[in-house]
Structure formats: C-alpha cells, structure tokens
Amino acid sequence: MNIILLIISFLFMEFIAWSNHKYVMHGFLWKWHKDHHINDKNSFTVDDLEFSGFEKNDLFFLIYALPAIILLLIGFKYNFYSFIFIGSGITLYGFTYFFVHDIIIHKRIKIRYFMNIRNRYLNALINAHLAHHRPKSSEDFKNFGLLLFPKRFFSE
C-alpha cells in the first residue's frame, strides 16, 4: 500500500506542477517566474544558453520542498509510514523535475551524456517545453506540464 502512495503522490505532483505553472507562476507570482523566460525571444538554441546563476524562479523549489519535508519529519517522528511514502513521492518528483528541467532541457548543469539526447520521449518532452518558451502559436504557450504533454510533439 505504501508503494502505491509513493507512486500516486509522484503522479499527482505532475498535476500540481502543471496547475502551479499555469495559475501561480504565470499568474500572481509571475515576478518570480519571469526571469526564467528572459531569453525566450532570442534566436539562439537551448544548447547555446550559459548558466547565468540562480533565478528568482528557483525559489519555487523551496515552496515545493516544504510539504515533502514536513511530511517526512512528521512521518519519521511519529512512525506515520504513509506520510513518509507520500513525502518520498513528492521528493522523487522534485528530483525528477530538477533532472529533466534543469539538466536535460535547460542544460544548467552540463553533463556530456545528456547534451545530445536520442530518446524519442525525451526529445518530444524537450520540444514541448521549448514550445512553451518560444511559442509558434498561442496553443504552444499553453503547454504548462513537464512529463505529460500533447502527443503532437512526438512528430516534431
């Protein structure tokens, strides 16, 4: 049962990330997120980006980490194993988000193996995310998810 809680919380975090990206980051906390979009109008590719340090956008990590930390602390202190597995699912999603978004897509940490992706799903994921940053249509900009995205990006 606990493994199921971990998997459900991981999957639920994709919905949380999507809704927060759409309604919070592109809404009332745009002032934190806008520096993440600062290079969107430039013509260079994502491979040409250099890590310019931390962005205000990185503060969202703290917001997303807090519930996981609280659940893990309470879970370990009071032996609430369900809290531990839910907190672990949130944490696992956070690591996945960091790895996919910051390393694979934006290459904020350059790892040679991930500089030239040849995986069909990961290429579609990168295309979907870049479409959000450099939309060719209003439909592109509406792509707020990370791991789930419209299937049309598999053919691009």
Mind explaining what this structure looks like?
The protein is mainly alpha-helical and 156 residues long. It has one domain. The protein has helices at 2-28, 30-33, 60-78, 81-105, 120-133, 138-141. Helix 1 (2-28) packs across helix 4 (81-105). The mean pLDDT is 88.
What tags apply to this protein structure?
156 residues, mainly alpha
- Percent of residues in beta strands: under 5%
Give the termini distance in whole angstroms.
Answer: 39 Å
The portion of residues assigned to helices is 55-70%
Q: Main β-sheet: number of strands, strand sense, barrel status? A: none
Q: How many individual β-strands?
A: 0
Describe the structure concisely.
This protein is an all-alpha fold. It has helices spanning 2-28, 30-33, 60-78, 81-105, 120-133, 138-141.
Compile the SSE list and pairings.
Elements: H1 2-28, H2 30-33, H3 60-78, H4 81-105, H5 120-133, H6 138-141
